[in-house]
Amino acid sequence: MSSTVGLAPIQLPQPEEFARTFVSLARSVLEGADTVEVFTMLAESCVRLLPVGASGILVADAQGFLQVIGASDQSVSLIDLCQVQNMEGPSLQCYRTGNVVADTELSEAGPWPRFATLASSHGYAAVYAIPLLSRGVVVGALNLFGSQAMPDNRLVAARALADAATMALLQADPRQDTVVIARQVHLAVESRNTVEQARGMIAQRFGMSADDALAQLRAAADRLDLPLVEIARATVHRDSSHPALALLQQPLS
């Protein structure tokens, strides 16, 4: 059954862990990490800090259509793409209303039959969509997938993580600088597409999973101290002059 959820004042469990996550996200933004990298980091942090199995992030482009920007693993990217392609799912309702949307049954008889079927096939029984909200402007949704309903205090903590994601994306007042926001989203979508293409190339070359291929790209980015999207772009364009190409000639440990 789907529902809109009201949230209580924020009381974070594991406050030190959450504080470290917020600091890490802020530092990444200040050091120039691209939006896809920051949002992927946040999706992975949700899985680490909350009782959920996976997390994904969607943001709206200049036309108001949601785009998949970050995910904790490849299966969630596919589930979130299902929402976008079929125009059904909790994220769309969350984006339209600005409210938290929860579905703790994921039934084919529910409001999102195709989404529910796909999410259930990956072992998820509950999903939450939390708005990425800044001063009354909804720019997207944070999705959380789990095997059971979350306690209220963890749902409140998830809101804090969603706020962190919004701050990473909106470094300006969206009502005053919508052109900048639209450009950021456009660049984020382009970056995501480049990373996905590079991940597919690495996965095919070494016969590994998409998640392992992403780990290879991120390891190369860490070793070279360069943004993930730059490593991905060099891979896609087969730029032999870029040090990443030589580094990725064999799987990294």
Polypeptide structure, described:
- This protein is of the alpha+beta class.
- The chain folds into 2 domains: 2-173, Beta-Lactamase (2-Layer Sandwich); 189-247, Arc Repressor Mutant, subunit A (Orthogonal Bundle), CATH 1.10.10.
- Helix content is 54%, strand content 16%.
- Strands 1-4-5-6-2-3 form a 6-stranded antiparallel beta sheet, sandwiched between helices.
- Helix 1 (15-30) runs parallel beside helix 6 and helix 2 packs antiparallel against helix 6.
- The radius of gyration is 18 Å and the shape is globular.
- The N and C termini lie far apart (44 Å).
- The model has no long low-confidence stretch (mean pLDDT 81).
List its traits.
253 residues; alpha+beta; Beta-Lactamase; Arc Repressor Mutant, subunit A; 2 domains; six-stranded antiparallel β-sheet; 10 helices; globular
